[in-house]
Amino acid sequence: MATSTHFDPEVRVGRIERPALMSNLARSFPFEARPVDALASAAAKAVASPAPAVIAIASPPPPAAPPVRRHSPLDDRRRSFLRMVSHELRTPLNSVIGFSEIISRELYGPIGNPKYREHAAVIRESGQKLLKLVNEVLEIARLDAGTADLILRPESATAAVKQAVNSLELEAQARNISVQIDVAPDTPLVLADARGLNTILTNLLQNAIAFSPEGGVVYVDVRPRGDAVHFRITDQGEGLNPADLPRLMRPFEQGENALTRRSQGAGLGLPICQLLCQDMGGKLRLRTAPGKGLTALVRLAAAVGQPFEA
To answer: Pick from 183, 119, 129, 122: which is nearest to 156 by CA?
Structure first.
């Protein structure tokens, strides 16, 4: 489906600090303390017997090395802390989820009153929500601390989109929402971290499914553009006031608007997507208007010298 929404890729240029011009000139042409008479005598000699002019051209300074993020002991402590928190929170949650599922399914035999089965199902669902929140908090903490350890490799855009769509199949079926995928045949492989790309697409698709009307359609369009690959995800929801978008990109932001009122999360999905895009050298842009749904555009670099999608 053709859409009228148009995005122009942006190129961010880092700030360049320029040294003071006068100080450079002063260093390039040092003055020597000499008597006025001596200066006048030297000038007279130069006029009487002018020497051939010699122009000295200074060689350009070597290009500045790109900034390198130096590894520090603090990074190791952050990684150790996140690993510890991850283990200490996820281990008991996995036990709660696992045993509540055993009880709700009565795998060891009937438990009598069906209310127990219902309560066990509620415990399992609550545990899964809490586990998702823990995973999101740890993910944004790693990204913010620069300890996410992303590995960029050529990845198939088609495979990444299909994997994300398949993981949300039950959610889409529950609301009778269909997902239409259109990948251009000349789309190259994308340079991305496999897990990070899956997280981005899954979060954006989950938002699109959650805020689309029942029986609606979510459109996923993948196209090459210059040296990049664009993933465009569009829903048919109510849309938002564009002025709300910057606020929704902040972690834990909850406000009085349609998106945050209907969402059961902690407001971390979009910030995580934005940080992952930045860490992979890409960009996330959102466009919306009241009554016109929301379109998310992910721009990632194409893998140079790699084959195109089949």
So the answer is: 183
Enter the pTM of the model: 0.65
Burial of residue 96 (CB within 10 Å: 0-12, 13-18, 19+) is middle
Cα–Cα distances (Å) from 168 to 3, 137, 171, 209, in that order, read 24, 21, 5, 9
What pLDDT is stored for residue 48 in this prediction?
Answer: 46
The rounded distance, in Å, linking the Cα atoms of 123 and 130 is 10
Give the bridge partners for 233, in sequence order.
220, 296
- The pLDDT of residue 306: 62
Which residue, 138, 161, 10, is CA-closest to 83? Answer: 138
Which candidate, 204, 239, 238, 236, places its Cα nearest to that of 217?
A: 236
pLDDT in tens, 272-299: 999 999 999 999 999 998 888 999 999 9
Q: What CATH architecture is 153-301? A: 2-Layer Sandwich (3.30)
Q: Quick one: average pLDDT of 48-61? A: 44
Q: Where are the domains of the chain?
A: 76-145, 153-301
Q: What is the CA radius of gyration of the chain?
A: 30
